[in-house]
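Input structure tokens:
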């Protein structure tokens, strides 16, 4: 190869690698493990605002948590203002004072909060004590003092006035936990940001730095506990030999007031304890749990408790012995009780071998059918942990009726921070917007106003506990969740658990300010993108409450419309040639609507009153059914998918307006992800629209579906070495086909036949994770681009998961020009191509 050509290729490969993800290391470093705790240096007037802040810090008491509070205050003030706080004397000079209410009261009895403060609540107060100006951060608990410090620093970082200050905050729900689905081998079920920060190769990691850093992040948003292992639990997690290792994680959490929890397998007494059974009512089993729990508390005195997934997706459960979830939960809860531990029993219990032919069968009914009759039978240190919807973290579901079905039982809501069904952190989806709708939904229990947030916080029925649980699945990636903007979901979860009355907009703006800067353009643009993103994703992935039309049998990522049908998993949408939707009415369907209190049952029972966005969750209707919007169902499907894809493309344009306003590496990282998302939104759009066009036989009134005049199918090109292959399911490739190369290299070419000019060319190809094919593009035999298909999409074959695009921004083309794509396969990936699309460059 000529040196000049080699250099050019090297440059273009480097560029390609940068775009495809190789450049993300630097970007992630910049996004930083500090996430929203960057404490960026304040400039000018912003800094002057805090000049009167006392220069000394007094800490009343000594404990690991108070030392964290002290260290955080020093770190934050120094980073933002440059000022190093000195150690002050107790109420003998102007100072910042940190301490519990009891300590403050001893030193200054006149300081009495305006209202009583509960545990974890805090009071921020600027006042004079013995003639000295003081800033007091206090709480009944040391953890609350730490939360107060974080709240104070957040105010500074967002440029809020902190003098005068008299603010009392109280968490809405007493229990605010995150769950991690980490396996002991270091992988994470439904984790999209690298390996576990806790485990590797069957043990706890020797270096738990990240676990400590995670606890700091959790504390900053008021999260009190973290369950570190998968709910599909490996029994070894509580094996005698493992407990000292767990104790190390608890040590890393403790300074931040985060309690350790673990998921346990109900068969543990049999598997670990060599008992004949794990029947929760058998005395040896009861004794086994008691001994095991006592042993745990000897090593981890502040252990938080267990999570149990049982009789669900193949997990062992009490049904094996004809026992109920309450029987199983109470036995373990009674072992935890003397130590103050909590048992989270998941209501995600269902039969995944349902007969799909029976139109009365309905997985959505399961949680209520099983748990409602047990109301009042659970001990008071059990929390029934309920997923927000009756199915499984879909982009749109009604709220679970079980929230209203437990009056004498503690309950908690399970939200999913990790984006399993919402784009797996490759798509931008800000989930607090959805969570707000769920939490604010008024279930009208007993005919009263009973929003979900009040029910799950235990406020409606005066329960002793209530909980918000978020499945986070952070990993070793520098920025914890993979997509830099996905951190807004972790932040948003904590903020809503603390105060579900905050608006999604407030949370988005707060997070943006803390993470990026106070530049109004940045805040407005990113906040706007975040707030739009859930609807955008819903628009291009699944219509009208029919659930995310993804591959439910595999990755849960790309389109897989029929994967949910004709199987026992019960995520049916029942689309056929005439119509779509599950009839869940009492009158003619599965009766699910009847699980809601009367006002809500009536809302969903009637097709007329069911809101459009949930129509297909509750009713089977013809494609020609007219929505409240005036559109037919089929036209809505077409329009919403085109709108969604356009909105995703617009995110790219919006982000580009921030070039030079956010750090370069971060800018590049997010841009590459948004460009990928815009391309994948088209894959989704086309798969769903084409499938419904073929199934319904009703054309798109706007003529778009199935018509792609700018597209040249790969299988229609002149092929040298390449052969056309069918893609399954057919709708996941344009024209149902792609091309693959079974040789060392192959060519696909065509002649340009449009007006001369500058064009943007999209090459749609398939990037599998079992090879790294190379592609080169030539125009008139001159190479114009090359790249390596080295992304790690969840796919080993051409299809909707692997389909991705390469955009070549500007090509000068003349009629008759030959455009040739050379594919060089690698491993199991046969340089697969789908199509090429050309748009005038100005479009
Ligand atoms: C941890 C869904 C997910 C599973 C998950 C399960 C659960 O089915 O796909 O990965 O298992 O929910 O919440 O238990």
């Amino acid at each position: 190869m000529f040196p000049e050509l080699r250099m050019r290729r090297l440059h273009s490969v480097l560029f390609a690698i940068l775009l495809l993800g190789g450049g993300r290391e630097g970007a992630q470093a910049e996004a930083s493990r500090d996430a929203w705790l960057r404490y960026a240096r304040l400039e000018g007037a912003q800094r002057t605002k805090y000049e009167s802040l006392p220069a000394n810090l007094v800490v009343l008491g000594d404990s690991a948590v108070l030392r964290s509070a002290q260290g955080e205050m020093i770190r934050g003030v120094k980073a933002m203002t440059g000022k190093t706080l000195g150690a002050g004397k107790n109420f003998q000079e102007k100072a910042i004072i940190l301490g519990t209410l009891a300590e403050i009261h001893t030193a200054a009895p006149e300081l009495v909060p305006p209202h009583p403060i509960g545990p974890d609540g805090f009071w921020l107060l600027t006042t004079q004590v013995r003639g000295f100006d003081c800033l007091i951060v206090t709480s009944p608990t040391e953890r609350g003092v730490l939360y107060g410090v974080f709240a104070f620093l957040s105010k500074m970082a967002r440029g809020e006035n902190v003098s005068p200050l008299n603010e009392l905050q109280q968490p809405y729900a007493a229990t605010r936990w995150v769950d991690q689905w980490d396996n002991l081998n270091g992988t994470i079920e439904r984790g999209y940001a690298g390996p576990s920060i806790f485990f590797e190769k069957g043990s706890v990691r020797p270096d738990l730095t990240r676990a400590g850093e995670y606890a700091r992040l959790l504390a900053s948003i008021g999260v009190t506990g973290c369950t570190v292992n998968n709910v599909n639990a490996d029994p070894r997690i509580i094996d005698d030999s493992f407990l000292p290792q767990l104790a190390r994680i608890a040590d890393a959490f403790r300074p931040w007031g985060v309690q350790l929890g673990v998921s346990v397998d109900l068969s543990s007494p049999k598997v670990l304890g060599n008992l004949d059974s794990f029947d929760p009512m058998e005395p040896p089993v009861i004794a086994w749990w008691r001994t095991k729990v006592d042993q745990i508390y000897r090593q981890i005195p502040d252990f938080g408790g267990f999570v149990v997934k049982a009789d669900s997706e193949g997990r062992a459960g009490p049904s094996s012995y004809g026992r109920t979830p309450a029987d199983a939960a109470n036995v373990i809860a009674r072992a935890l009780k003397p130590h103050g531990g909590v048992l989270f029993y998941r209501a995600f219990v269902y039969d995944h071998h349902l007969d799909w032919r029976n139109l009365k069968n309905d997985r959505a009914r399961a949680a209520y059918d099983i748990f409602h009759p047990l109301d009042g039978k659970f001990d008071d240190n059990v929390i029934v942990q309920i997923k927000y919807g009756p199915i499984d973290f879909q982009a749109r579901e009604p709220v679970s009726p079980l929230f209203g079905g437990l009056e004498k039982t503690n309950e908690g809501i399970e939200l999913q921070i990790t984006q399993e069904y919402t784009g797996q952190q490759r798509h931008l989806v800000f989930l607090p917007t959805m969570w707000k709708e769920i939490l604010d939904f008024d279930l009208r229990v007993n005919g009263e106003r009973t929003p979900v947030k009040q029910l799950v916080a235990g406020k409606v029925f005066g329960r002793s506990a209530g909980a918000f649980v978020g499945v986070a699945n952070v990993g070793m990636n520098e920025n914890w969740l993979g997509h830099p903007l996905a951190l807004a979901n972790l932040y948003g979860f904590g903020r809503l658990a603390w105060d579900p009355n905050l608006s999604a907009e407030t949370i988005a703006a707060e997070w943006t300010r803390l993470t990026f800067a106070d530049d109004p353009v940045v805040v407005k643009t990113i906040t706007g993108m975040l707030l739009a993103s859930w609807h955008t994703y819903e628009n291009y992935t699944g219509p009208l409450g029919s659930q995310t039309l993804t591959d439910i049998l595999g990755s849960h990522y790309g389109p897989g419309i029929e994967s949910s049908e004709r199987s026992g998993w019960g995520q049916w949408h029942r689309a056929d040639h005439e119509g779509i939707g599950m009839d869940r009415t009492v009158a003619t369907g599965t009766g699910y609507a009847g699980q809601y209190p009367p006002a809500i049952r009536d809302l969903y029972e009637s097709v007329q009153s069911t809101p459009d966005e949930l129509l297909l969750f509750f009713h089977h209707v013809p494609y020609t059914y007219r929505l409240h919007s005036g559109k037919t169902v089929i036209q809505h499907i077409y329009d919403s998918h085109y709108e969604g894809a356009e909105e995703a493309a617009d995110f790219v344009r919006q982000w580009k307006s921030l070039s030079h306003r956010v750090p370069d590496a971060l800018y590049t990282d997010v841009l590459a992800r948004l460009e990928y998302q815009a391309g994948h939104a088209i894959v989704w759009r086309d798969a769903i629209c084409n499938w419904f066009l073929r199934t319904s036989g009703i054309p798109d009134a706007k003529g778009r579906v199935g018509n792609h005049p700018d597209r040249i199918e790969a299988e229609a090109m002149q092929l040298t070495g390449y052969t056309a292959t069918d893609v399954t399911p057919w709708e996941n490739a344009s024209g149902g086909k792609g091309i693959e190369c079974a040789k060392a290299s192959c060519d696909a070419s065509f002649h340009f036949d449009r007006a001369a000019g500058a064009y943007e060319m999209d090459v749609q190809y398939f990037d599998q994770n079992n090879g790294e094919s190379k592609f080169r593009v030539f125009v008139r035999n001159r190479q114009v681009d090359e790249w390596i298909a080295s992304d790690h999409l969840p796919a080993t074959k051409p299809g909707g998961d692997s389909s991705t695009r390469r955009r070549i921004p500007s090509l000068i083309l003349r009629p008759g020009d030959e455009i040739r794509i050379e594919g060089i396969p690698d491993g199991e990936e046969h340089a697969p191509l789908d199509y090429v699309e050309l748009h005038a460059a100005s479009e």
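The pocket of 4-O-methyl-alpha-D-glucopyranuronic acid is lined by residues 181, 189-190, 230-232, 309, 313, 348, 392 (CB under 6 Å). The longest strand covers residues 803-813.
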